[in-house]
Design goal:
The protein is of the alpha+beta class and 275 residues long. It has 7 helices and 17 strands. It is globular, with a radius of gyration of 18 Å.
Length: 275
């Protein structure tokens, strides 16, 4: 039995239909040579890449059924699963972009609700993006223990806000998850530099499972799911097609990097410094 922890990122070109996307996930897990312990990471909006946020809102009421099915997959394959984002109902016509982390027993060990919402104008032929129309922003920083080290949860646009990741590291994070659906324009310009910056400055592994390609809803996403080392080295890059990538996790190497260059200890802007 393999004992070295490994992480897997499944790059997807999700459709508007949850049935289709769940079937795709199930097939990829069936094809994987899964060993224990394994953490499988999914992209943002993996379950349904809808035409509009109103469509996503309509689906949110029934999305707990899919989480129940994910629990069964985790039990069957003996994996931990970071389920990208799934829309879960809040109130008053809003939902959370919720990132659910399940363990190998199928238990929910964490839920992170996306904090930074993508309300921006991008020169990609769209009319702009207003995620806050139906999504309510989360408030809590989430770091959780796991066989892979301490995992910090985030989503897509969060990656531009370094302070969030610094707070995660203060709480002990060693792996940072960034499920995403980057536009092509912003992806070409900023995707890899942002992720490498987060890895280097926090000295954490970064696993960023992404959407890719031309979607049924007309959106185009950048792809290039990445797994990065705490040194900022690209350990795996999925390119532009739907693909599965994976890498080992070496927490001994992580601690060596932090010991030789103790930037976390040297940081003069830690919150406790001002207490």
């Amino acid at each position: 039995m393999r004992t070295v922890p490994q992480v897997v990122a499944i790059q997807m070109c999700s459709s508007v239909d949850p049935e289709v996307n769940f079937a795709y996930l199930s097939k990829q897990l069936e094809l994987l040579e899964i060993s224990s312990p394994t953490l499988v990471c999914l992209p943002e909006s993996w379950l349904a890449f809808s035409h509009t946020s109103s469509d996503t809102l309509a689906l949110s009421e029934s999305n707990w059924q899919w989480i129940e099915k994910l629990k069964l997959l985790c039990q069957h394959y003996g994996i931990w699963l970071a389920a990208g984002t799934i829309a879960l109902p809040y109130k008053d016509g809003q939902y959370y972009a919720a990132s659910i982390l399940l363990n190998d027993k199928g238990n929910i060990v964490a839920q992170y609700n996306k904090i930074h919402l993508f309300d921006v104008d991008v020169d990609d032929g769209s009319t702009g993006y207003r995620e806050s129309t139906h999504t309510v922003a989360g408030r809590d920083v989430v770091v959780v223990d796991s066989p892979f080290g301490k995992i910090g949860l985030s989503v897509c646009y969060d990656v531009r806000f370094a302070g969030l990741y610094h707070m995660m590291v203060e709480q002990g994070a060693q792996l940072l998850l960034v499920p995403s659906a980057f536009t092509v324009v912003t992806g070409v310009a900023h995707w890899q530099p942002l992720l490498q910056a987060r890895a280097i400055e926090t000295q954490c592994y970064v696993i960023a499972a992404a959407q890719t390609g031309v979607h049924e809803n007309g959106r185009k996403t950048f792809g290039h799911s990445l797994i990065l080392s705490p040194w900022g080295t690209v350990l795996a890059d999925a390119g532009k097609a739907p693909k599965v990538i994976q890498s080992d996790i070496d927490l001994v190497e992580l601690m060596q990097i932090r010991t030789k260059m103790p930037v976390l200890a040297h940081n003069r802007f830690k919150s406790e410094f001002y207490e």
